[in-house]
TrEMBL record:
It comes from the Bacteria. The keyword Calcium does not apply. Residues 21-238 form the Peptidase S1 domain. InterPro entries: Glutamyl_endopeptidase (IPR050966), Peptidase_S1_PA (IPR009003), Peptidase_S1_PA_chymotrypsin (IPR043504), Peptidase_S1B (IPR008256), Trypsin_dom (IPR001254), TRYPSIN_HIS (IPR018114). It comes from Roseovarius aquimarinus. Its EC number is 3.4.21.-. Belongs to the peptidase S1B family. This is Serine protease.
Length: 268
């Protein structure tokens, strides 16, 4: 349990993606179309020109990201129509784009509260796209389905401050600790990397998503275990689909509404 204790001992040292983490390998800019091959389903979530996060398709109409990306700085939910997903965005060109129809953020994540292990454990959201993106254009990623272990090699594909015009791929970084639904990584993340997929690659297999970037300190990034969270979020979206869409609805099985005043990327 030493690894779990290390993860949960955040205290005042944690900031939500405030500083880049030190890493085991350099970032590779995915500039050309051929560079993006296989990574097309990672995209940028633009929040009405006021900020952005990273996110990845896990189905033609579902984008997985961090829950804190879908709230403003005051903790109010963003309106779905204020968010645009652009798959494989690079230097103003994208593979595909779509607006957002509905959002489900996990009910265990409470916005505008101090960041803790409990918040990181539940910092996941699913966005249902208004127009599904065909798999032939951007093939969705599968979840790894297994818990990452300390010492495991992973990779991260994300946007970030100073590198928001194109995806950056860190080919190798590592899980430094894992336990109680939270993981720590030595991956290079910064503002805008929130919601970025963390990949594990099996031998001879396409990369699978093992976590989502939630937060970071000066030398460590943090994410959560996913399979159970994602199933709960899918359930909430299905429940929302059977209800009328109302402005002002909250989370936990209802559609998001209200107004957006910006993105929440860095909060002590």
């Amino acid at each position: 349990m030493r690894g779990a204790a290390r993860i949960l001992a955040f205290g005042a040292a944690i900031i939500a993606l405030g500083l880049p983490a030190f890493s085991g390998s350099s970032l590779i800019r995915l500039t050309d179309r051929e560079d993006l091959f296989g990574w097309e389903a990672v995209g940028r979530l633009d929040l009405e020109g006021k900020g952005y996060c990273s996110g990845a398709l896990i189905a033609p109409d579902l984008v997985l990201t961090a829950a804190h990306c879908v709230y403003d700085d005051a903790g109010a939910p963003l309106a779905p129509e204020s968010i645009t997903y652009r798959a494989g965005l690079r230097d103003g060109v994208f593979i595909a784009e779509s607006g957002v129809e509905r959002i489900a953020a996990h009910e265990g994540y409470v916005p505008a509260q101090r960041l803790t292990g409990e918040m990181i454990r539940h910092d996941a959201a699913l966005l249902q796209l208004a127009a599904p993106i065909p798999a032939a254009v951007a093939s969705p990623f599968a979840l790894a389905g297994i818990r990452a272990e300390a010492g495991q090699t992973v990779s991260v594909v994300s946007y970030g401050q100073g590198r928001d015009a194109a995806l950056s791929w860190q080919r190798e970084c590592a899980v430094t600790a894992a336990g109680q639904g939270v993981m720590a990584f030595d991956c290079d993340v910064t503002f805008g990397s929130s919601g970025a997929p963390v990949f594990a690659r099996g031998r001879g297999q396409r990369a699978r998503i093992v976590s989502v970037i939630s937060a970071g300190s000066s030398d460590t990034a943090y994410g959560m275990e996913l399979p159970r969270l994602v199933e709960e979020l899918k359930r909430d979206l299905r429940a929302a689909g059977s209800m009328p869409k109302r402005i002002g609805d909250g989370f936990g099985g209802t559609a998001l509404g209200g107004t957006a005043s910006g993105a929440k990327f860095a909060k002590p």
